[in-house]
Amino acid sequence: MDTLQKSALGLESTPSISLEVQLSPSTDSQQTIFSHPQPLPLSHSLINAPLIQQNKQEKQPQTSSVTEEIDFEAYTDIELQRLQTELERKMHFYEAENIMFESYLCRVTPQGKEDDKGDANGSVRTGGAGTNIDNSDSQDRGKDTRREKKKKNEKAKEADRPLLLTSEQKSEIATRELEELRDEIQHQQEEWGKVMDNYKAEIEEVEIRVSEIKKAMYEFRRDIVQQAVNQRTGKVMAERVIRYFEDKIRGKDATIEKVRLKNVTLKVQKNKLHLQLKQKEEMGEVLHAIDFDQLQIENKQYLQKIDERNSELLKLKMTAGKTVQILNYYRKKLQMLSSESTRLRSEIEQRQDLLGKLNSEAQVVDNDRRKSERLNGWILKQLDDYKVPDVMDYVLVKASQHDLNKKLKGWERKVEIAAMQVQRMRKIWQQMSIEAEGNRQARKFESSRKHQSLQPLELPKIGMYN
User: What are the sequence ranges of the domains in the chain?
Assistant: First the structure.
C-alpha cells in the first residue's frame, strides 16, 4: 500500500518518459537523456488493458538497451556501484508502477488478471536477469561490437518507437488507485470501528457484570458470612442463607418483569410504526432512494451548520476566555491601584499631619524670630545710647578693684582666723561648763546628806503588831 502511494506520488510529479542513461568516462555524474514519446491520441475513457500491457512489455528492452549502451570497462568500482544503485532505484520505481497498473487492470478488466500477473512477473524477472547478464557479458565484449549494437538499437528505436502512456493518463490512473485505496482504507476503518465498538460494548457489559458480582459478594459477606453465624455452633445459619437467595431470586424476577414490560412496549411501538409505514405506502408517500439522498444531503447541511455553530461557539468560548483573562488582569490591576491609592492616602494624611506640625513649628519660630528681632532692636538701641568711659577712668577703676580684691582676701583670712578662735573658745567654754556642773552636783549631793543626818530616827510601834 505504501509502495503504491509512493509510486503514485512519483508519477504525479514526473512525466512519462523513456530513459537512456549515458555515462562518460571523464565525469562521475550520470547524464540522462530524456526522449518524450508521442502521446496517445486517446481520451481517458479509451485507456484499456492492451495498451497497459504493451506499455509494460516495452519496458524490458528499454532497460536492456540502457545497460547495453554503458561501457562498464571505462568506469571504476565506485562509479559502477553508483550506477547499480541508480538502476536498482529505477527498477523499484518501475516495479511499483507495474503493481499499480496491475491493480488498475484487475479492477477494470478482471478477466485479464492472471495474464497481467504473469507478464508483470516475467518482466521483473527478465529485467533483473538482463541487468546481471549485461553486467557479466559486458566484461568480455569489445568496444567495436558495442558500437555496432548501439547503432542497430538506435535504428530499431527509430523504426519501431513504442506507444506509451502520457503523464496525464498515468496521473489519472494513479489518482484513481489512490481514491480506491482511500475508499478501501475508509471501509476497513469503518468495519474495524464497528468491531471495536462491539468489543467495547462487550467489555462494558463484562465490567458491569463484574461490578454486580463484586457487589453481591460484598453484600453476601456482610449480611450472611459475618452476621448470620450461630454463636453456639460457629456456623452459618441455613435459614438466613435460604432467605437471602430467595430475596435475590425475587429481585431478579422483578427485573425480568420490568424488562418484559419494556419489551412489550417496544413491540407495540414497532407495530405502530409498521402500520404508519403501511399507511404511507398505501397513500403513495413511500420514501424512495432519492428522498433518502435528499435527507442525507439535508443531514450533511445540518451537520455542516452544526459544525459551523460549534466552531463559532468555540470561537466565542475562546473570546470569553480571553475576556476573562483580560478581566482578571484588570481586576488585579484595580486591586494594585486600590492598594496604591490607600497607601497614597495614608501617606497624604501623614504628610498633612507633618505639614500641620511644621506650620505650628513655623509659627513658634516666627514668634521667636519676632522676640529676637525686638530684643535685637532693644540691644541696638542700648548700643546706640551706650557711652564708653575714658581709658584712665577704666585703669583707675581696675586698680581700685585690684586693691579691693586684696583687702577682701585679707579680711577673709582674718574672718577665718576669728572663726577658728571662736571655735577654740567654745571648746574651752564647754569644758568649763562641764566642770562647773560637776562641782554644783557634788555640792548638792553633800548638802542632801547633811540634811538627812540631822533628822530623828523613828522606831516602829510595838503595840501595833499585838
Answer: 2-188, 192-279, 319-367
Do residues 126 and 60 make contact, with C-beta atoms less than 8 angstroms apart?
A: yes
- Whether 51 contacts 165, CB under 8 Å: yes
Which of 73, 81, 82, 60 lies closest to 138, judged by CA? 73
- Return the CA Rg of the chain: 69
CA distance 271 to 277: 10
Count CB atoms within 10 A of the CB of residue 46.
10
CB 128 within 8 A of CB 60: no
C-alpha cell at 132: 546481471
Contact 74, 82 (CB under 8 A): no
For 158-196, write each residue's pLDDT tens digit: 555 556 778 888 888 888 888 888 888 999 999 999 999
Dump pLDDT digits (tens) for 116-135.
445 444 443 333 333 343 44
What pLDDT band is residue 412 in, cutting at 50, 70 and 90? Answer: very high
Cell numbers describing residue 117: 500477473
Contact (Cβ atoms closer than 8 angstroms) between residue 23 and residue 76? no
